[in-house]
Amino acid sequence: MEEKILYSMESPFQQEINVKGYYFGKNEGKERSACIVGALRGNEYQQLYICSKLIDVLKKIEKHGDMVGENGILVIPSVNNMSMDFGKRFWISDDTDLNRLFPGNPSGESGSRVAYAIMETTRGYRYGIHLPSFYLANLFGLPYVIEAKSRPFDRTTLHNNWQRNGTEAFSLYTGMTGKIDDELATQAVSSILRFLTRMGIIRYY
Fold it and tell me: What is the number of other CB atoms lying within 10 angstroms of the CB of residue 72?
């Protein structure tokens, strides 16, 4: 595993905002196979917790040599640490929803710059999994699949922008947001590992 700062910026509210990513696969994996993004909002504690549990398992998988071939996985547990620290749901400087700012703008307001950085970092991955949204998939081994018609604001979500840039995107609803539920988190981690196994990215038994 390699931990990297994906984006950093100064903040009037605290010393520095750092968005961290965790790469798995030899030399970060030559193949950009799967990217998992957790909390985009400051109240998504469960999504952050799921990513932390997932990272723990992926460390063991990588250590045991069970990353398949040159596959690479990137996990971004939280994009919005600052709002989480202050107990706010939306971006603290202007109360915007980060998941309504994609694909972002490198010259825009701070939230839009963060969205742009995440979009560019995750561009080109074969699969993208975003935890807090509306869709489930059979490949995850979960009991329900929900389909919904696209709405105008969907064009500004991470999920939709992944799709429009060639990434097969999945949004995994976990049944909890503002509180931590270990049982549901374990189910979510297992479903992601099951998907990565079925896609030939890892070996997990």
Answer: 22
